Amino acid sequence: MEKKIKIAIYPGSFDPITNGHVDIINRASNLFDRLIITVASNNTKKALLSIDRRVDILNKTFSNKANIEIDYFNGLLVDYAIRKNVFTIVRGLRTLSDFEYEFRMAIINRNLDKRIETIFLMTDEKYSHISSSSIKEIYNLNGNINQFVPKTVSKTLCNLKNEKNNK
Ligand code: PNS
Fold first, then answer.
1. Catalytic residues
2. Which residues constitute the domain of residue 89?
3. Residue 1: inside a domain
4. What is the pLDDT of residues 101-130, one digit of tens each?
5. Cα(23) to centroid of ligand 1, in Å?
6. How many other CB atoms are there within 10 angstroms of residue 133's CB atom?
7. What is the CATH number of the domain that holds 17?
8. For residue 40, how far is its CA from the centre of ligand 1 (angstroms)?
9. Among 2, 27, 87, 143, which is least packed, fewest CB within 10 Å?
10. What distance in angstroms lies between residue 44's CA and the mean position of ligand 1's atoms?
């Protein structure tokens, strides 16, 4: 019998990516033959980083992982999944409040296309308190974010601050 290649999509805002995301990505990339990390570019949340910068950070962070592809999308996630012909979506779960939101999103996506399956990975408890929003808040209030994010994010945000200060 022909062996199926297992591919999954890990979508998100990644504004910015945190150590919690990195942990989920590393674990998901061990479960699947190929993992596509895709940045949602039409999110209404107030963005800190441009899509280009987020994609660049992801490329740099996972440059050593041969089975990880970085991409971005506009519009509905299901339409992206159809374009890619990949119907498994990975999401991380941290808290009970995440569950409510994720449960709703998984059902909506399956209503939009019956082929979609969402698979959840529980966060490592080391990262259950970390969110992109808290990173943004700490950064905007001049706090130190280094312990919560990969080095690629710290460097980019440091450059961003220098660019702003030099204007
Ligand atoms: O990192 P986030 O912000 O929790 O990711 C949420 C994301 C980007 C996966 C979700 O908002 C999404 O899929 N957006 C694309 C638009 C869409 O398909 N919406 C319908 C699902 S409710």
1. 21, 45, 94, 132
2. 7-165
3. no
4. 999 999 999 999 999 999 999 999 999 999
5. 20
6. 13
7. 3.40.50.620
8. 7
9. 2
10. 10
